[in-house]
Amino acid sequence: MTAGRILKGIEFAHPDGFAPLLLDLYLPAGSDSVSDAASGFPAVIHFHGGGWQTGERSSLGPAVDGFGLSPIEQLVEAGFVVASADYRLSAVATFPAQLLDAKAAVRWLRSHAAEYSVDPGRIYAWGDSAGGHLASLVGLTAGAGTDGETDDNIAAVAAWYPPTDLNRMGEQARPDAVARADDPGSREALLIGAQPADAPDLAAAASPVTYVRDGAPPFLLIHGTADRFVPAAQSTTLAGALQKTGADVELLLLEDADHMWSLPDGSQAAARQATAATIDFFRRQARKH
Q: Cβ(45)–Cβ(83) under 8 Å?
């Protein structure tokens, strides 16, 4: 592996009838205290936000990108390989296509672990908003793949302001919400192909909270208390369900922060706190193994 490379536009899957799916791969410059020469670097797979409608790999949304904090690059500097992956958007395919694509990215990275000096036992998932929803689903629905070496197991999950319970998302919305899941043509309705209230089974099937189980991986959930797009109760709901099973879950609520860590004073404080907490979480997870 050549140190410090960024490999863009690697094809990791090609669903029948659809365009190829690509990922960007960020490779660290050298060893770190979380790395092990024998087993390889820990790795994080990132899924972007955008309401399953927009967004692009390697982006954390226009507001966060505008802060210039470069959370992906900070993770790489901390000694992690980072893969930021495409998934089919809702205008192209409805759920579960997005989850299948996310799982395909995990399997691709694990099957190429030796090529990129990745420790296959230390692969983690991270996402923001819709990407946090997918990261959470990947972590909670992992199972054996087509062969014993390319499974989709995830060792830990970090999710920023994720939708977690589509059936309750509308009722949990703030009075000043910009968007509600039960609005006609909402992002959530477009994801599942129906209004959640008219198709509660479909909404449940697309909700991470449905899949909470014994043996779930450790979770870090970070949410702003003033989020007008995804209610903070979505993270507290998932955290509570995980806690009931005895899972290792950390919930960080950032006061007055809206979606994409926007604060009334326009500062970067919430984004900085979320980024630092995420890197610290993955560092701690990597050192456990």
A: yes
Architecture of domain 6-287: 3-Layer(aba) Sandwich (3.40)
pTM more than 0.90: yes
Of 160, 110, 109, residue with least CA distance to 133: 160
Phi/psi at 248 (5° precision): -80, 105
Residue 9 CA to residue 207 CA, distance in Å, equals 29
Sheet order of strands, 21-26 included: 6-13, 21-26, 81-85, 41-47, 118-128, 157-160, 219-224, 249-254
Residues 6+ apart with CB under 8 A from 153: 106, 123, 142, 143
CA 117 to chain centroid, in Å, comes to 22
The position carrying tokens 């991470």 is 208
Q: Model confidence over 66-98: pLDDT tens digits?
A: 999 999 999 999 999 999 999 999 999 999 999
DSSP secondary-structure letter at 141?
S
* H helix runs in 112-150, sequence order: 130-140
CA 281 remoteness from chain centre: 14
**Residue 168 to residue 204: CA distance in whole angstroms:** 10
Interior/surface letters 229-245, b for 16+ CB within 10 angstroms, e for the rest: bbbbbbbbbbbebbeee
Beta pairing class for 118-128 and 6-13: unpaired
HSE value, Cβ hemisphere, 13 Å, CA-based, for 142? 24
What DSSP designation does 54 have? S
Percent pLDDT > 90 in the chain is 90
